[in-house]
Amino acid sequence: MATAKDRAPAPAALGLNDDIGEEKRLALYRSQIRLREAEQRAYDLFLQNLVKGTSHLSLGQEAIAAGFAEAMQKGDLSFCTYRGHAHTLARGVPVEKVLGELMQRDNGLMRGKGGSMHLTSEEHGVMGSYAIIGAHLPIACGAAWRAQYKGHKDVSVCFFGDGTTNIGAFHEALNFAAVWKLPVVFVCENNLYMEYTPIADVTAVPQPAADRASAYGLERILIDGNDADVVYRTAQKAFAKARAGEGPSLIECITYRHSGHSRADPGKYRPEGELEKWKERDPIKIYRERLKQFGISEDQMSDIDTEVRKEVDDATEACKAAPIPPVDILTTDVYADGGWAWRN
Fold first, then answer.
1. Are 324 and 50 in contact (CB under 8 A)?
2. pTM (2 decimals)?
3. Looking at the 3D structure of the chain, how many domains does it have?
C-alpha cells in the first residue's frame, strides 16, 4: 500500500494551476490520442492502397483540435480546412465514419461521396471542410451573424492555416466580424509552411495572424499550439467573449506538422533537423508529462491508449468489410444546371 510519502505531491504544492481538473485533462488526453491513432491509421491504409487520392494529415497538431473541441458547447459550429480530419473527430464523429469516408465506403460520413477534403456532420456541429483556401471564413461569419440576429448563444469557430492570412477572404472576414461584433473565433494553425513555402518568406510581419489583429481592433493573441491546456484556456476565454456579445477573436496557434503538406509531399524542403527538434515538443509527449505532474498514473494513460487503439482497430475492420456506395446515389446531393431547381 502506498504511503503519504510515496504519493506524488498535490498540484497546489507544486505551484501548478489546477483550474482544468482531472476529468477534463483525461478527456483532452484521450482526444489527442484518438486523433493521432486515427490519422496514423489513415496513413497506413493509404499505403495499403485502401485510401484513394490525396489527403492532408494533422499529425503533430492534435492539441489545437482537442483543446478547442473540449471547450465548445453543443450547438457551437466548426468550420474546417481540407486538413479537417482531426477537427471532425474531435467534435465526436465516430472514427468509422471518417475512415469509411476516406476509403470511399458506404458506411462513410457522406457514404463515400465527399472524401478526405469535404468532411461534414451537421449533427456534430461540423459545418464542412473546405478545399478552397479561405473560402470558409466568410461562411463562418454568416453562421455567426445568424446566431446574433436570432439571439442564439452558439459560437462559430473557423480553423485555417497560416497561408490563408495572405488571402483576401481572411481580411474581409476579419473586418466584417469586427464591425458587426460577431460571435466567431478565427483560429490560425501556424505550422510554419503554406504548402511548401515557409510562411515567413512571403509575409510582411513575423506572425501572420497575430500581428494583423490590431488592424481590426482585435487583441493580439499568440499561443503555444502544442500545449492542450494553453489551447483549452484560450478557447474558453474567446468563447465567453463571443457569447457575451463582445465580438470576435483571432488566435494564432504555433504548431508543426510531422508529415508533408499532403500524401504526395515528402517534406524535403524543410531544414535538416527541424522536424526532429519539433518532435521533442510533440503535443502528446507534452501532455503525458503534464498528466504525470497532476498525479495521473502511467496505468491510467495506458488504459486510454489501449481503448483508443481498439476503437481504431474495430473501425478499420468495419470499413474494410463495408460495401462501396451503390450506383443509384451517384446523382443525388448535387446540382447540375445551376437553374431554378436549386434556387427555389
1. no
2. 0.92
3. 1
